[in-house]
Amino acid sequence: MYIARLKERGICSLSGNDTLSFLQGIVTNDVAVLSDKIPCYSALLSPQGKFLHDFFLIQDGKRILIDCNLERCEDFRKRLLMYKLRSDVEIKLVEDLTVFAIFPEAPFEPYDIDNGIMYTDPRNPMLGKRLILSRYTADRLTLQKNTKRVPGINYQMHRIKLGVAEGPAEIEPGKSFPLEFGLQFLNAISFTKGCYIGQEVTTRMNTRKLAKKVPAVIKFSSEIDVKLREIIFHNEKKIGEVRSVFGNHALILISMSAARSLQAGQLIKVGYAEASIYFPDWLDF
After folding, report:
1. Mean pLDDT value of segment 203-210
2. Which strands make up the sheet holding 40-45, listed edge to edge?
């Protein structure tokens, strides 16, 4: 089992009497589960249904913590403020907290921690657990037996092998549709909770099966220099592009028609190299 500090993650907090109702009206998932101390993975979309942010919501006493991309934290906070209007909600950046991932999923006893929150990743149990700690505690964290501390890139490689995309590096803000990355299969979208920003487009795409792309994973025989957004070909035809690369694995986005015609293990061409393709177990297309 491994533990990695995710330096690319930041924390915001929301508090106030209207926090739950405020979130319920703007994000893609049903935040009612937070009342039962269940973490929630969700997204914020544009009115046109385009992806803007993905994040985790976690109840922490009287406030809700938001685990989001660090570089996009301020943009996320500003967008929330834009929608807040007169709601009794206070939105803050929390700079004294940091995020860890514990992976892969395995039975273990919780860490003995102060001022920390641990929960199973709501996207997929194979992603393991997430741990939010104060930076002071994080620097002095005592590891359990059989747990090895590794760089954050090790976790990213594990995530990519599972075919799970994250924004903004892989899910391009303002241009991508969440259903093209399978976010509905990663517990990010509720189709029963009612209205939210971008809900009409998202529901229509789901009902009419309008998503034209799906995520997949390719594996090279060894580590090679593959550029982001590099075009992928099969039988001399463009079928998709590379979204991220870690080691000898890459997360790709390919056309739905190509995905339905390809078999797991089949070779496709990326630049001058060949790679075998496979599809995430959680994806249903």
Report:
1. 96
2. 40-45, 51-60, 63-69, 9-15, 90-93
